[in-house]
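Much of the work behind modern protein science is quiet bookkeeping, done one molecule at a time. Below is the pair of lines this work produces for a single protein:

***
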Amino acid sequence: MTALFLKISRILDRAAVIACGSAALVLVVMVLVNVVLRYGFGTGSIKMQDLAAYAFAVLVITSVPVCLARGGHVRVEVLSERLSPGYLRGADAVALVLFLIPLFGLVIWAGWNDLTYSWSIREGAVTPGGLGGLWLVKSVLPLASVMMIWQGVAVVLNPPTPVADAPEVGPPETFVPVPERPDDRDALHRDGAAS
């Protein structure tokens, strides 16, 4: 059962990565085309602006489960670097039950009536002459919320491992002391000017 759950989790993750990549590509192309049209030819397209906005919404919403699946979510590093992996897994399980599931369950519940109404009228563009299909974009939020809950459970069952080739993130190699007293600042400037 766990293996099937994790397999579905990987499929959902791949779908979210494809959605993020596609949305990012559409966003970049639409913004570039809009800039060229507006400043190069003195014209523009409201539909292309709407498509860029839709792509941005999809990118932001679908990137959240992708981040969670890769362990990119926020943790208090002071605590997490000192705790054992077993304890962190337990903390993730508690956070899943107390925060992630209720929060994203609330997102689904609170937006459900708006989503069903949007689907019933096939909600279109907010601006005149804009791109239709806003109801499809609104559908991404509950889908991403379900994916977040699913990925949260998957992270507890099988925590992500760090990428082997990923660069270490740490303090910078150089440190410039900040003088504490005003007269120290003058000395620092004199020393810096002399060298």
About this structure: The two ends are 68 Å apart (CA to CA). Residues 2-41 form the longest helix (40 residues). Residues 163-167 have pLDDT under 50 and may be disordered.
